[in-house]
Amino acid sequence: MDTTAQKAKPLAVQARQRGGRRRSWRARLAKDRWLYVLLLPGLLYFLVFKYWPMWGVLIAFKNYQPFLGFWQSEWIGLDHFRTFFSNPDFARLLRNTFILAVYDLVFFFPAPILVALLLNEIRVGVFKRLVQTMVYVPHFISMVIVASMTYVFLTTQGGVLHALVEQLTGRSFNFLADPDWFRPLIILQIMWKETGWGTIIFLAALASVDVEQYEAAVVDGATRFQRMWHITLPAISGVISILLILRLGNFLDNGFEQIFLMTNSLNRTVADVFDTYVYFVGITQGAFSYSTAIGLFKSVVGIVLIFGSNYLAKRLGKEGLY
User: Fold this and answer.
1) CA 282, CA 288: separation in Å to the nearest integer?
2) Distance spanning both ends of the chain, measured CA to CA
3) Which domain holds residue 123?
4) Is the domain of 226 the same as that of 102?
5) Which of 54, 153, 276, 293 would be a feasible disulfide site paired with 60, CB 3.0-4.6 Å?
6) 110-120 and 233-249 are packed helices; what angle lies between their axes, rounded to 10 degrees?
7) Whole-number mean pLDDT of the chain?
8) Is the whole-model pTM more than 0.85?
9) What per-residue confidence (pLDDT) applies to 1?
10) Do 153 and 43 fall into the same domain?
11) Residue range 155-173, pLDDT digits in tens
12) pLDDT above 70 covers what percent of the chain?
């Protein structure tokens, strides 16, 4: 009798604990019900437009035929990937994409940090807001307009900047057609258009830095550069680390619109990247499965880079995504 009662007691306790957890969960749900209602639109957006379309990547493993439909098309496994990796264009596309991505990482990624640090040092409020507005405005200009402006300024037929360079150097440079100038132009366009907008996150991080640290550094005789190096930069290092990890996740994404607008028959050898190749093969030639395989390859590389960079950041004692 006593043994049976001892066994039954823990079971009863467990049942009461489970019932308490259920009541606690329901109570929290009822208490925060309006927060969950506000969450629903965003959750539905991601489910419908982000997660549900993921089923479409399966056509990378099929010989997809639109008239047969998704389920009736033949399953061919990794054939599209083998074709892509053995394609002579693969090495050229990978090289062009990789070089542009490295340029973006080396030149553009630090630019918003530098601008944010400089803006943070401006003490005249009116002038600071004016400069902020000026550097933000290009973000709202369409890339089509940016490409058109580049053409107007650099064309050999009356371009203002081309004429100025020609007058200063005595030489004529065909910036728009010379393959050697394609990548610098792409990076300069990105830096002009997006640097100001990228400073928003860093300025928000800088606003949380304790002012007393600067005051103590001034008392100790630290120069403005020393304060920036030893106080400001360490304060935003976590934000820099997280944004760098996220940027590496899009390492192979060069941006279709900009590359497409700046490409011509004379610079195509360096302008062809994965994004434009997917468009030409998938849309203009109807190779939906093949182009999906290329896109899936890019996504897998991005996931590997995110996990790898996050692991490395953690090992170095920096902030990570998780």
Assistant:
1) 5
2) 52
3) 78-315
4) yes
5) 293
6) 150
7) 86
8) no
9) 46
10) no
11) 888 888 888 888 888 888 8
12) 93
Q: What backbone torsions phi and psi does residue 273 show, to the nearest 5 degrees?
A: -130, 175
Which two tokens mark 16?
């009461």
Residue 240 falls inside a structural domain: yes
Residues 131 and 52 in one domain: no
Q: Does 69 reside within a domain?
A: no
- Using one digit for the tens of pLDDT, what is the confidence trace for 174-232? 889 889 999 999 999 999 999 999 999 898 888 888 888 888 888 888 888 888 888 88
**pLDDT over 70 at 18, yes or no:** no
Number of domains present in the structure of the chain: 2
Q: What is the pLDDT of residues 257-304, one digit of tens each?
A: 999 999 988 899 999 999 999 999 988 888 889 999 999 999 899 999
279 within a domain of the structure (yes/no): yes
Structure tokens at 126: 């009116």
Long-range (24+ apart) CB contacts under 8 A made by 183-187 are 183/99, 183/100, 183/103, 183/270, 185/150, 185/154, 185/262, 186/100, 186/103, 186/254, 186/258, 186/259, 186/262, 187/100, 187/103, 187/104, 187/107, 187/108
Same domain, 152 and 20: no
Whether 186 and 50 map to the same domain: the answer is no
Domain-ending residue, one of 63, 91, 112: 63
> Which of 35, 63, 91 is the endpoint of a domain?
63
Same domain, 86 and 33: no
Looking at the structure, tell me whether residues 266 and 290 fall in a common domain. Answer: yes
In angstroms, what CA-CA distances link 173 with 149, 150, 152, 266? 17, 14, 14, 14
pLDDT at 31: 83
Distance, in Å, from the CA atom of 164 to the CA atom of 316, rounded to the nearest integer, reads 48
Same domain, 27 and 125: no
Residue with tokens 């100025």: 164
The residue assigned the tokens 């965003």 is 42
